[in-house]
Amino acid sequence: MAQPHHLDPWDESSQARPEPFATGYAKGAGEGIVYGGAAVAVGALVFALVGYPVALGVALVAGALAAWFYPTVTREPQVGAREDGLFVDGIGFLDWSAVSALTLHSTAVRSIMLTKLVIQLNTDMDKAVAKPQRQPFWRSLMMRNWRLKKDAEGHPTVVVDLHTLRMPPEQILSRLRQFRSV
Fold first, then answer.
1. What is the helix, strand, coil percentage profile of the chain, to 5?
2. Where are the transmembrane segments (predicted)?
3. pLDDT at position 137, please?
4. Helices 54-68 and 31-50: crossing angle, nearest 10°?
C-alpha cells in the first residue's frame, strides 16, 4: 500500500511550484459598448441607405467604436504567467529576468477603484520580450489593455489596467510574485 506524501513546510524540496494562470476581461467589461455600437451602426446604415447621408457618418463612428472595444468581449487572456515569463496580450511573454519590479497603483474615481499593474523592466522592451505574440494587423487598430512608459531612469515600464479583468488585482499580483520567487 502506497503511503501518502505529506508536505513538510520546512523541506524546500516539497514546496509547491507556482501554477500557471491567465485571466481575461470580466463579463460586462465592454459588451454594452460593443453590441450597442454595432446595433447603432447597423441602424444608422439602414437610414443611410434610405437617403439620410448624415447617418453614414453616425454608422462609421459607431462601428469604429464597437471595433475599438471588441477585445473586451473576447475570451482571450490579457495577463498571465508561467515559468517562461509574464504574459501581456499584444506583447507576448516578458522574460522574468527582465522584470525588476511588480507593483499595484490604485486610484479612486468617485466610488470606482481603478487599479493598474506596473511592470518595471531592467532592459529595453525588445530584449525583455522572450516570446512575442503574433497578431493580425487589424488587432493593432483595436484597444490594448496596457501602455508603455519610461520611468525616471529611462527604463521601460509596462502599465496594465487590472480593474477590468476577471481576477482581483491583488490575486494577480500575488500569483505573479510567486513566479518571481522561483
1. 35, 30, 35
2. 44-70
3. 93
4. 160
